[in-house]
Every structure is written in structure tokens, then in C-alpha cells.
Automatic annotation (TrEMBL), chain A:
<feature type="transmembrane region" description="Helical">
    <location>
        <begin position="122"/>
        <end position="140"/>
    </location>
</feature>
<comment type="function">
    <text>Part of a membrane-bound complex that couples electron transfer with translocation of ions across the membrane.</text>
</comment>
<feature type="transmembrane region" description="Helical">
    <location>
        <begin position="211"/>
        <end position="228"/>
    </location>
</feature>
<keyword id="KW-1003">Cell membrane</keyword>
<feature type="transmembrane region" description="Helical">
    <location>
        <begin position="292"/>
        <end position="307"/>
    </location>
</feature>
<dbReference type="GO" id="GO:0055085">
    <property type="term" value="P:transmembrane transport"/>
</dbReference>
<comment type="similarity">
    <text>Belongs to the NqrB/RnfD family.</text>
</comment>
TrEMBL record, chain B:
<keyword id="KW-0813">Transport</keyword>
<protein>
    <recommendedName>
        <fullName>Ion-translocating oxidoreductase complex subunit E</fullName>
        <ecNumber>7.-.-.-</ecNumber>
    </recommendedName>
</protein>
<keyword id="KW-0249">Electron transport</keyword>
<feature type="transmembrane region" description="Helical">
    <location>
        <begin position="70"/>
        <end position="89"/>
    </location>
</feature>
<keyword id="KW-1133">Transmembrane helix</keyword>
<keyword id="KW-0812">Transmembrane</keyword>
<comment type="similarity">
    <text>Belongs to the NqrDE/RnfAE family.</text>
</comment>
Automatic annotation (TrEMBL), chain C:
<keyword id="KW-0472">Membrane</keyword>
<comment type="subunit">
    <text>The complex is composed of six subunits: RnfA, RnfB, RnfC, RnfD, RnfE and RnfG.</text>
</comment>
<keyword id="KW-0597">Phosphoprotein</keyword>
<dbReference type="GO" id="GO:0005886">
    <property type="term" value="C:plasma membrane"/>
</dbReference>
<keyword id="KW-0812">Transmembrane</keyword>
<dbReference type="Pfam" id="PF04205">
    <property type="entry name" value="FMN_bind"/>
</dbReference>
<comment type="function">
    <text>Part of a membrane-bound complex that couples electron transfer with translocation of ions across the membrane.</text>
</comment>
Amino acid sequence: MHKQNKFTVSHAPFWHDGSSIKCMNLNIMAAALPAVLFGIFQFGMPALGVICLSISTAMAWEALFNFISKRPITLNDYNAGVIGMLLGMMFPATIPWWAVIIGTFVAVVVGQQVFGGIGGNPFSPAVIGATILMVSWHTFFDFDATLLSYDFNFTALAPLAALKHQGVSATGLFNLSDLVIGKEVGAIGAVSGIGIILGGIYLILRGFIRWEISVSYIAGILVTAGLFNMVDPGKYAEPMFHLFTGYTLLGAFFLATDSSSSPVHTIPMFIYGAMGGLMTILIRNIGAYPDGTFFAILLINLINPLIDNIRPKALGKGVNNA
Amino acid sequence: MAQSIVKEFTKGLWAEVPPFRLVLGLCPVLAVTKSVENGIGMGIATTFVLVCSNFLVSLLRDIIPAKVRIACFIVIIATFVTVVELMMQAYTYPLFLKLGIFIPLIVVNCIVLGRAEAFASKNPPHMAIADGLGMGIGFTLSLGALGAVRECLGDGTILGNPVFGPDFQPFTFMVEAPGAFVCLGLLLCLMNLIGKK
Amino acid sequence: MREMISMVVVLTVLSAFSGGMLAAVKTGTNDKIENQVLKFQKAPAIKLILSDVSNDPLQDRFKIMDQEEEVTFFVGKYDGTPKAITFETKGKGFGGDIGLMVGVNIESDEIIGVAVTTHSETPGLGSRAKDDPKFVSQFAGKTMDKNLGIKKSGGEIDAMSGATITSVGVCLAAQKAQELYTRLKPEIEKQTAQMAN
């Protein structure tokens, strides 16, 4: 065992806003509630089941890992709860129970705990969990197939999948106001645009997430999609369609803003967010997957340590003849 | 004397097992372990090259001038690798198809060159063979183990036989490239956990 | 000076030795390898396409040079007269080249059928091109002037859902086959006419 030095501080980002991690996480969960409630309202009891299972197993995995690695139980900072909740929001309501359990294991243990727990994770844990599930069991994230048993009173097609397979004419099937309210086929917590925006604005006002990241992410989406749309409106969908479908808003407000895997300086935050929006649209328009939000966020998580080096020089530092 | 041969042989099986302890030769470890069969096939091919090149390098260790020793080692290794490649093409063609480019890449596998440089060029032939054999078998077993975990979870089969029954939905992530990294990391962690006690 | 000479001599002798050894192994395994390639890669696909021929297409084959590339054609005879040929083309897929065996009826210029020979696509997604006949059966009966692209880009083929890139790759190979066949038609007719006797 190496000697514990009391005054060593880690390299993780630090925000000073006077509140505790516990308080921050509780607020994030509260902010996510409107979107979750809308999802439960829309998809019924199975959605509630997925969210509950996701939160509880995420906490169980963290407790188990803490126990095995003989470290203090960190459940009461609610971090695992937040990961579980975000993960649950990214699932379709019909996902099998065992997939949820594997997802939370990957997110909490492989995504965060093996890197040393809260503050040490290089990626947003919830995104890791969801991505690995999506890569493994493609069909569970094929919303057209998984939500077949539902009888919706709106276009029962996953917007982004429809765009990918049927071309841009399919966007005519969707009413923008429906998409904003959340009358669309998708993941539990990702359908309600209004709910996510409300939660996101609350978090920004309270200072738990940084507006720079969310705003630049959305700007990245709009600008990139706008450019594509301008070049060939017959081939690429409009920016607003991209903004309110798939995981875009969830990514902008809840996933990209994960505290330990996003930058802390102003300029890097803008680059980080804009890159995320850019990559999301590139993957959607050019790549093979219908939605690129997960991969885009993992990519910007990866470049985060690098771009976070762009910061103002300390006064007098690096000047030879001062 | 006999004891030290045993020692050189067994060190490759646990104490210095190449991919997990020396963390060497990761290219084939990550790339071909989609199934047990591929892993063991690759391991056997590498073992053959390792034993032959170790033996020849050790035989010629007094003749090879120090300044061109790496060039000589590479010539020797490349020869045996090409022999293995041709042999696999002629006799185990389906396996050759699966391993593909990774057979010729044995040439640049650090384990082979590493053992030639670090061991075979300083020790007599019988020791070099024992060392090569031990390292090769350790490598084969590691690839087999990694392949077993990945094939079992990723495809639901071991050596092509289903192990979980028809309802199992394969964890495809495990047979993809990132799954190899995660799996290797977890196995390394497990090895360290066991080794600590 | 002596060191120089020894360096040159050792390297030369080693290289010569390895060259000789490889040449010997190569000549020893050459025929065997060619048979293996035919047996494992081409034969299953050819059998799938030309299911009711009266000859062995693997035996009745000829080669034509096409723009510095040699293409092997396998002839299928019905009641003793050669009526169909198959040959292989390649298209770019998700995980590398996809080899596609294309069978063409030389009397009506219709595609009899296609089958995937080699691929490295994702198991369960792109690999369906080989395992699930639903996708490749769409090519059967198409003539040379049809657009064999996927529907999204104006062609006549339905892409496999979740495996668009693989579908495009297979279509690309089929389109290449169309070009190749049209280009080499006279030569093919000459060769098959000889086979008739």
C-alpha cells in the first residue's frame, strides 16, 4: 500500500458552488423527472419498471463493488442513482430486465468504479452502458420493432430510423410540435423535448451544469444539420428535426455535461459541445447508425483532457526575460 | 541442469505468461481471440515459430555478429513464419482464412523477437527450446482463455457448441474490438488479484 | 575489416538458407494450396449457384486476363453443353472486402444467382448476406442492364435492415460482375465453345 498523503488533490475538475455532490445529484434527478414522468405516462407501467430496475441495480452494483474492493460504501452521494436514472431514460420501455442489469453493471462498474469511482471516469458512465448495450443487442434499440405492441395516436415510426431507411421524405410524417411535446416513438426519457429542456434549464440556472456545453452542443447540431440541409435539402433533414428526435436533447443537457468527463474552461467547453453536435449530425447523415449521439459523446469525452489544456496562461508564466 | 530446464519451461506458464504478465504481443491477443479455435490456432502457430527460431538463434549465437543480430533474428523468424503460413494454407485452410493477416504478423510479434534477443542469444539450445516451448504454451493458453470468455459471452458457444441454450441472446460487444480490450483488462485484473494472495 | 566480412557472410548465408528453404516449402505446398482455396472458398458458393449441373465446375475452369487481373471462370454444363459460368468479384463491405460468386446464364445473359464466398462482416448483422439466402436471392433473374444498387440509391435491391454497408458492398460486387461480364463476353463465348466438345 502506498502512503496516504493528506494534502494530495486529484486532477478531477472542481466546481465551487457551495453545494455537495449529494445535493447536485438529487437536483439532477429532480430535473430529469419531468421527462421521465412523461415517458411513463406515454409508455405505461413497463417504463416505470425499467426506470426503477435501472436505478436500483445501479446502486446495487456500486454497493457490491465497494464491498468487494473494500472501500467505503459511497451510495449516499446518489451518484449511482443518477447513472441508473439516466441509463433508464435511454432505454425503450420494452427492454428485457436482464439487459437493464447488464447495462447498469457496465455503466457503474466498468464505466466508473474501475476508474476509481466518482470523478475518475473518463467517459460518461451512462453513455458507456447504453452504447455497449446498443452495440451488442441492436434490436432492443430498434424502436420500431420493440414498441410494436403499443397503439399510439401519432406516427408510430422511430423518426431517425425512418429518416435513415426511407430518406428525407419520411420527415413529412412527423409534426414538429408533436416531436417537441414528445409524441414520438423513442426511449423512455428521450421523447419529451419539453421535459428535458425544462430540466436542463433548471440545472443551468442552479449552476449544476454549464450552459456553455449545452448551448454549444445544440448550436453544433443546428449549424451542422443546417449546412447539410442547405447543400441538399432532398437528402438531409432539417436542423429542427434533428434537434427534437433521438437522444439529441438528452445528450445536450444530461449526458455531455457529466461533471468528470467534460472540460472546465470556457473555450474548451464551447469546443467540446460544438464537436459533440457536429459528430452527432455527421454520424446520423453519413454513418451507418440512425442516431449518433452516444458515439459523439464518447468521442468528445475522449478529447476532453486534450482540449481542456486550452486555457489562459498564468501571468508571467513562460516568459523568459520577465 | 534438468531442474533449470523445468524452471525455464514453467516460467512461461504463469510467472511470465506473455500477454498477461509481460503484456507483450497484444496485437494477436486482441485481434484473433474472437473464438477459442482461432486463439489456440494462433497460439500453436506462434509456439512453432518461437521454438524453431529460439533453437536456431541459440545454435548460431556465437556465429552471428552483434551488430547485425537483429537483422539475422528477423530473417530467421520471417522464414519460419512463412513456413507456418504456407503449411496452414495447405493443411488447415479454414483456420488460415479466419486468422488471415495475423499469421504473417507473427514476424513482428514482440514475444518472438523478445525471446530471441533476451534469452536464446545468451543460452544453449536445449534451454532455448524449453523457454520457447514454455512461452509458446503460456501464450496459447492465454489466447485460449481470452477466446473462451469472448466466444462464450459474445456468441454463446464454446468451440462452436452452444452452451446457453437457444434463448441466449449473444453479448455481441464481446466479439467486437472494444470488447477485446475490456475483456483483457478484466482478465489482467483477475490475474493480479489471484497473484497477490 | 574482419568484422565487416563476417557480417556480410553470415547475413548472406542466412538469407540464402532461408530463401532455399522457403522455395522448397512453396513448391511442396503449391498444388495443395490451390486445391484448398477452390475447395473451401469457391466450391460451396459455386454449388449453391449451379445446383443441377451435369459436370464438375471446379474441373471445367478457364482463366482470362482482364486489365492485368486474372479472372477464373467456372463453367456449368447442362446435358453436356456449357450454359452457365460463374466467377468471383469483390466489393467493399463494413469489415473489408466481400467476395461474391456470380453465376450468369450465357444464353440469356441473366444472373442465375449469387453467393458470398469470403467476408469479414459483423456476425449476426452483415454476415446474414452469407447465411440468410433472402438477401442474395434478389439478384437472381436480373439481366445485365438492370441497376443492381440498393433502392435508396435508385437500384432494385432491398438492403438488409441494420446492414446497409454490407448490402452496398454486395451490390457493388454484383455491379462489377455486370461490367466484367459485358466486357469479356466475346472471350467467354470463345472459351466455352471449346468446352462444348
